[in-house]
Design goal:
By secondary structure, this protein is of the alpha+beta class. Helices cover 18% and strands 20% of the residues. The strands form six sheets. Strands 10, 11, 12, 13, 14, 15, 16, 17 and 18 form a nine-stranded antiparallel sheet that branches. The longest helix is centred in the N-terminal third of the chain and has 19 residues, at 2-20. The chain is globular and about 90 Å long.
Amino acid sequence: MKMQKFKASLIAMAGGLLLAGCMQPGGQLAASAPVKGVVENGTAERFQKIAGATVWLIPAADVAAMAKTPVVVKKDSANDEPLEDNLNAHRDRYLHAKTNAQGEFDFSSVPAGNYFVYAEPGDAAHLPGGSLARKALSTTELAAKPVTVKLSGNTPPDATYVGTSACLKCHDDKEHFKQTMHRLGIQVVGKPSGLQDYSRFPEVNKGLNKLMAGTTFWFHSYDGKRKFDKYQISTKAPADLASASFTATFFKDSDGKLKFRTDNLRNPADKARVYTVEAAYGGGVYKQRYLYRVGANLFPFVQFNQLGDDSFADRGRKPWRDYHADWLFDEKTKTLVNPAKSKSFESNCASCHYNGYTLTKNAAGNDVAGAAPDDHGEMDVDGDGKLNEMNMGCETCHGPGSVHAVTKGVKQFATIISPNKLAAEREVTICVQCHSRPQGHLKNDQPVNAANLMMLPGTSRNDFLKQFTTREDAAPGDYWADGLHSKSHHQQGTDFIKSSKYRNGTQLLACSSCHNTHGGAKFAHQLTLDPKTAASCTTCHANKVDMKAHLAEKAKCTVDVSQITCNSCHGTKTMQTGAGLGKGLVAADGKNYWMNDITSHLYDVPRKDNKGVKGVAANAAMPIPYTNACGAACHDVKKL
C-alpha cells in the first residue's frame, strides 16, 4: 500500500512537471517542433536499421523531480531506475513514435523542453536504451537535423562462453584489459596466466613473497563476537602465550609449492595438518588473501595489508590480519579441524570473480564451480582437463560470445552486448551486482539466481533485484550509523545509485563515465582523469568554482587552497578494505583518526556533527572522512 501511494505521488508530481515544462512564463504553450530520426544497430562498418522499435521522449523535468526523492532499494521500487521507472509510470502520457521498415521515426510536433531519448526494441535481438538515453537534449537540438539512435545488440539464448582469448583475437586493441585488477585478481601461485600482465602492479605479491620465504603466524586472543578476524595474528609469540590457540607456518616445499602447516598449541598431541596454497587473490591495490585446497574446494586464509604497519594500534590496519582462522580450529574442542564444505570459495565468493560462473554439486556432494573455458586461463576449476577464467573477462560485461565469435563479417544484427548503448541504469547494474552487497539465492554475498547463475549484462535493475537477490543490498552493519554512507568495501554501487550522478535532469552517468573499463587509462582505479586535479570534475561541471570562496562559504575555511581539489572533500574515504591510507593523525583526546581506502560514491561531504541525521547522536556516525579530509592536508587535528 505504501509503495502504491509512493508511485501515485510520483506520477502526480511528474505529470505536473511535464505540463509545466511546456509552458512559457506567461502561461502560453511554448513553440513546438518536428523531430525525425532513425534507430539502428551495428558497428561503423555495418549499420542496420531497426524496424518496430518505440522511441520515447522522457521529460528531463520528471527525472529531475525523481532525483529529489530518496532512493528506495527494494524490488519493484518506483524510483531507482531514472528512465525506466518514469516510463513505466507515464506510458499513457509520454510522446512516442514507432519506427517503420526503414527504422525511421517521426514526431510531428514536440513541445519545447528537454528530453532523454529512450528506445524500446520490438524484438529480443536488441536491448532498450540507446545512444541518446544519457544526456537530456532540447527540442531545438533534436529538431536541428535527423537524430540517430544506436541500440545494443543482445546475446542469443543459446550463446555460450568462449573466454577472453577468443575476444582478443579480433579486438587486440583491448590488450590492456590484461593489466586491470579485474583480470589480475586471482592468480595461481607462481604461474600468472597468459591473460595476466602485472607490469602496472610491481608489488602485487609483496605479501605472497613473504609467505614463500617462510613465515609463522600465532593466532591468539580469540573473540567470537568478531566477524572474519576472530583471532589476533602476529609473527611473534604473543606475550600471553596461553591465549594462543594454534600456529600456521607457511613454507615453500620441495615440490616448489607454497604450503602451510597448522600446529595445535592447546593440545600438542593433536596431529598437525598441511595444506597447499594454490592461488592468491588481490594484492594490486590494498590487500591480498590466499586460497588453500581441501579436497575439491578452495578456501581463503590470512590477509596481507599492503599499507599496514605493526605500530598501528588497530588490529585491522596491521600488515597481517586474520581471515577465517576460526575455520581451522575448534575453540570448543581445542582441536585442529578442516573448514566446512559450505564455506568454500566456490560457493561463497567465486561468482563475482569467475567469467561465466556456474555452480553444481558432484557425486560426493562438493560444490563445483565452472567458468569460461580459455586456453590461457588460470586454472582448471571444474575438473574437465581444460583451463578456465578465474577472473572477470570480456563476456562478464558483453555477454557470452559464442555466436558473436562466428559471425564476423556476416550481415546480421550484433549478437553481443554494447554497454555504452544501454540506458545508464542498465550499464550501472552490470557493475553494481558485485559492487554492492546483496544476498543471492545461496543466502550469501553472491548475487546468483535459483539456478546459481549470475545476471547477464543488459538486465534491468528491477529484474536483477527480483531474480538474483533475496536481500537487495547491504545489511545495516555495512553502513555507518547514519544509515547512508557505506562502511564495508565493494559497496561503491550501493552509494552511487543514491547520488545525483545517477539521477538528475541533465546527464545520467554510468561507471564508465569516469572509469575506463578496458584498462586504457593511466590513473589508479582505471580512472580516465587524474582525481588529484580539478579537471576530473570540471570536464562535466563546466562552471568552475572559485575554490577559496567556496571553502570559505561552505566550511568557513580560509587556509591555503592550492592543494585542495573537489575530490578532497567530495571523494571521502568512508570504506575500508585494507589498512587504510596511512597512519591517522592524533587528536587532543589521544584517539587515532584514520583515512580509509575506498571512496564513497555519494559525492557529498559527510558532517561530523551529523546535523539532520534522525536518530543518530552527534559525533557518532562517521568521524573518519571529516578528520582526514581536512586534517591530512591543512589542519592540525588537535585544534579542530
